[in-house]
Structures are given as structure tokens and as C-alpha cells.
Amino acid sequence: xxSGSHLQMRWMELLVxxxxxxxxxxxxxxxxxxxxxxxxxxxxxxxxPFYIGCLLLGGAAWVILQTLLTWKQDDGQEVFAEKxxxxxxxxxxxxxxxxxxxxxxxxxxxASLTFVAAFMVWQGKYSVFKSIAVGFGISAALFALxxxxxxxxxxxxxxxxxxxx
Length: 165
Prior knowledge:
It is a single chain. This protein is mainly α. It has six helices and two strands, in the order αββααααα. It has a two-stranded antiparallel sheet. The longest helix has 26 residues, at 9-34. The protein is flat, with a radius of gyration of 21 Å. The protein starts with 8 loop residues before the first helix and ends with a helix.
């Protein structure tokens, strides 16, 4: 098998690490924007996210450094995924991307209910009724946790607006 005809593992390691660098820099800069120090009344809103972003950045830098240091030793023959394996990944990636986009239209609770129920039916071969019940239970628990208990509003769709949230 030629290494040029497939995506090599080391390129995927660099790509994923670069994505983590981007996310960590976003988290760090936003944490600095909202305040990342210890205030008189406790931690500012960006205190914990700032340090999590720093850990992410350190981990990503470590992966990049290791990959680059072992570049010459690696023969470049390790393949990230064969075609059928890549297709299996797409079977998980595409519904996840649709779910993420649906959050902006349906809100997180209805999108989560749909995502969980659809995956239970599609991948788990559960009944539609049981899948919807579990999806509804998870969405209701998330609603109670974030909206009621933490008083932290999450993205809403037309159903929540119709219900007055």
C-alpha cells in the first residue's frame, strides 16, 4: 500500500492538535476578556476555563512536538483509516454535524431529544417509543439541570419560546 494514496496518521495527529490549539486559544482569550483572576468574592467567570484552556494548549503542543520529533523515525506507512473505516466515521460525524446545526433552529433540548432517539433507533435498534422516551428524559433532565437548577439558559428553539421560556 502506497503511503501517498491514504491519509497518514501523523498528518491527522497534527490536524487534530492544531484544532485543539485553536479551541484552546479561543477559550484562553475569552477567559481573559471576561476576567480570569481571583476576585474579592471568589473566582471570576473565566478563572476555571482559562486554566482548562491552558491545559488543552499544553496537551496540543505536546502532541505537535512529539509528532514532529518522531517524523524522521516514522516511515509514514501508518494509515489513519481505510476507506470503509472512514465511511464508518462519517456515519457518526454527519449526524453530529446535523445535530449541531439543528441546535440553532430547534434549540438544544429538542435537537438533543431527536439526536438521542434517532441514534437509539438507528444504531441501537431500540423501539421508537423507548427511544423517544429516553430522549425526552435526557432533554428534561438537561432542562431541569441548566435552566432550573443552575439558572443557565441554553439555546432555545420555537417550542421553548412557545412555552414561554
